[in-house]
UniProtKB/TrEMBL annotation:
Source organism of this protein record: Kibdelosporangium banguiense
High-level lineage: Bacteria, Bacillati, Actinomycetota, Actinomycetes, Pseudonocardiales
Protein name from the UniProt record: Chromosome partitioning protein ParB
Length: 278
């Protein structure tokens, strides 16, 4: 807890002023470092769940959670920053009242949060979270509701990461892979998921033409992985052409070169060099 002057009301006022100053300094530091605009913005729950695809939820009851796992809000994203520091002075009266109560040792009711992956989103108790941060606490009591999603929430740090997650979810709806095959399809560029979807669908169409029968999406996805993706990636690994890319990115790169070869009928040193650098 920050230094105590012996006057709880004055200390609570200083707590708020320190939190506001920290929020302004954080914005200034982000501007000086030219960081993305969403670095200090808390994550909006609805956008996160929409990107990942909600599949269910269940109540877990009262738990003790880490404050640094609380990264977003159900509806108060403009009142606090990512560290739950107040973004304006209009929250001051209620904020200081809560800080004063905590400094006096009065009981504070648990907050309410939704859990997505290892992240928590506040539905009730934003001011309590903000005060707890300001007073240097590490944990807080919360009633937790866990939200299950279609794809993993791992890797989400900022709002911009939701674009990749959303496109990955759409890709897996079009190409319903599972297990190791699902895990292998990792791309850093959101648009690349659309390109990969169309690549798989085109491959499946040619397969159905060859076999003169209909295959559903799951069948096409499974056969694409075992008959096309794995063999090609295996050759790329042996040739040292994967590099620092993911396997899916390496596959797309060689797939693009194969398409160019089909159109140009060339397979010379220039094409090989282009393949190595992509």
């Amino acid at each position: 807890m920050p230094a105590d002057t012996g006057f709880p009301s004055a200390d609570a006022e200083n707590d708020f002023l320190r939190a506001r100053r920290g929020q302004v300094l954080s914005r200034l530091a982000a501007w000086l470092r030219r960081e993305p605009d969403d670095v200090n913005i808390m994550l909006p729950f609805d956008e996160v769940v929409d990107a990942l695809g909600r599949s269910g939820e269940r109540r877990l009851g009262l738990q003790v959670i880490r404050l640094d796992s609380i990264v977003g809000s159900m509806d108060r994203t403009h009142d606090f920053d990512r560290r739950f520091r107040p973004t304006s002075g209009r929250l001051r009266e209620r904020w200081q009242r809560l800080a004063l109560a905590q400094r006096r040792g009065e009981p504070i009711p648990p907050i309410e949060v939704y859990r997505v992956g290892d992240m928590h989103f506040v539905s009730d108790g934003h001011h309590r979270v903000s005060v707890a941060h300001a007073l240097g606490q590490d944990t807080i009591e919360a009633y937790v509701t866990q939200v299950q999603t279609k794809i993993s929430a791992n890797g989400i740090r900022f709002r911009g990461d939701l674009i990749v997650k959303n496109d990955r979810r759409l890709f897996l709806e079009r190409v319903p892979l599972s297990g190791p095959a699902r895990a292998a399809m990792v791309l850093s560029d959101p648009w690349a998921y659309t390109i990969l979807s169309e690549t798989v669908e085109a491959w499946g169409f040619r397969l159905m033409q060859d076999e003169c029968r209909f295959l559903n999406r799951a069948e096409v996805a499974a056969r694409f992985y075992t008959e096309e993706f794995e063999p090609v990636v295996g050759m790329l690994r042996q040739a040292g052409l994967v590099g620092n890319r993911t396997e899916a990115e390496a596959y797309l790169a060689v797939s693009e070169q194969r398409y160019r070869l089909m159109r140009t009928h060339r397979w010379d040193d220039e094409v090989i060099e282009t393949l190595r650098t992509r």
